[in-house]
């Protein structure tokens, strides 16, 4: 399906059919889309927790306010997207080593330059005190890829920011891992009576969101 058609068709699902589950193959593909998401200087400052069982849902539900509970309760799978709050130089070097192993550097000088640039950017954000905001921004890119990839497979989704972040971080013990929760994405198949399914999409008009630079 054309990406524009997917953009028109995907919508935020409010009620899922609890009996329909995403296949292992589709779920594997969606997680691969998350893994492949782009990020500034390829820093990949994220970790994704995936749940689908009743036990996993019950674990996370205390962090979900009333209005979002049905999405988690009835979805097939949910992903807690987390971003890094801190990265050591060793972790940053590990990215370069992986890129090298993946064959990105025919010359060691290029590898060393990229490694040093990545550290310069990471240190700059640490010094500015906005490292966590920076990494969260990267994680939103992954979220967007997940929503559209799901829609391309006919899988419905709900991006969820309406959650208790501190509680989520406690439940998943994220602080000790230098991570913080950024959002949850619920995935599955819409219920027959999903109130949002037939609502026309509404966005601001083009002339309000685009200007040309002449
Ligand atoms: C970052 C983000 C957070 C959101 N949080 C919630 C949420 O907590 N609960 C919910 O039902 N919808 C949530 N939404 C859905 C938005 O309300 C929805 O995307 C918007 O109204 C546009 O509608 P559409 O997605 O159906 O096109 C969120 C969307 C985004 C992108």
Explain this structure:
There is one protein chain. With 214 residues, this protein is α+β, with helices and mostly antiparallel strands. It has nine helices and four strands; from the N terminus they run H-H-E-H-H-E-H-H-H-E-H-E-H. It has helices spanning 3-9, 24-35, 54-60, 69-74, 89-101, 108-128, 131-152, 165-171, 206-209, and strands spanning 46-51, 77-84, 156-160, 179-188. It is globular, with a radius of gyration of 19 Å. The chain starts with a helix and ends in a 5-residue tail after the last helix. The model has no long low-confidence stretch (mean pLDDT 97).
Count of β-strands = 4
The CATH topology of the domain at 3-87 and 136-191 is given as NADH Oxidase
Name the strands of the widest sheet in spatial order: 1-2-4-3
The secondary-structure element order is HHEHHEHHHEHEH
Q: Any guess at the CATH architecture of the domain at 3-87 and 136-191?
A: 3-Layer(aba) Sandwich
Mean pLDDT equals 97
SS element count, helices: 9
Strand-pairing-aware structural class: alpha+beta
